[in-house]
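Appendix B. One record, verbatim.
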Amino acid sequence: MSILSGGQSDFFGLDIGTTAVRAVQLKGVGASRSLEHYGQLAIPPGLSLSDAAADRSKLMQAVTELVKQAGISSKNVAVNVPSGKVFMAVIDMNRMTPEETAKAIRYQADSLIPTPLDKSTIDWAILGESPKDRTKMEVLLTSVTNSFVESRLDMLETGGFNVVALEPDSLAMLRAMVPPESNDAQMVLDIGSLSTDLVVALGAAPRLIRAIPTGMETIVRSAVQNLNLDDSQARQYIFKFGLSAGKLDGQIYNAIIDTIEVLMSEIDKSIKFFQSRYTNVKLEKITITGGASALPELPLYVANKFAIGVEIGNAWRNINYPTSAQNDLLMASSHFAVASGLAQRST
């Protein structure tokens, strides 16, 4: 969908998700960035995670069709790396220059990453001083298998695209959800189809990153099993009643609350871990995005659970757009955090 005319951005953001592919293209730089094109196209569940050649071909066809429908002409693309395909950790290292860090990081990574070093693509960024030891520095370490990188590059290059960056979902999401000038500590939850990406940021930089294997499908499955509903009925009831304990005699609430509590337990562990490491920092806010953010009373439930302010995320908060498009954009916002964040890269 094109909502502005004018010059092209150098690249666009592409989120290859579980149930849809989404694209966002901006124009301009910095605070003057404007939304130029965006769009999404549904894909069969599981298609994006398949290694079969036929499925990769179908996925590439979907991406090509999406780009055409959205009116994007650029062939340069920043694409996501799903949380399930990437290892991420914030580690402490002795203070050293970036050049020295580059040499030392592989030794550190070898004892941390779950895949063989020679079969992994490793990246890192210095975050700042360690809160535990001022003689050390915090470093964000990321690792993804070479096979996944090569597969994604091959697929997109076959379609005529030039990949300028691959970035984990959680980092792209954070860029979209948090103002770049932020100094507060805040948590962002992207509750997707299969899992929840959890990031705690301090000063707009990640300090804790987790992928929790509880998502919208888990919640739906709970309703299906506990209420003997089919999938379609379960979704309809969940998005109508959500965590409203007083609606429909509390049947939906009772059917899904145990699953919700599993997610709450993981959030609680993350908050406690963050506060044990950053003892002088208070978590100020939780921002929720993703499909499950539309569940009635979920934000209120989270706010009451942790006594922390909660808001629904806005994927377009750092981007200029015409007021005439506001309603459509806000309705789509919960699904566009990753694509929007990718489009906002400085690359």
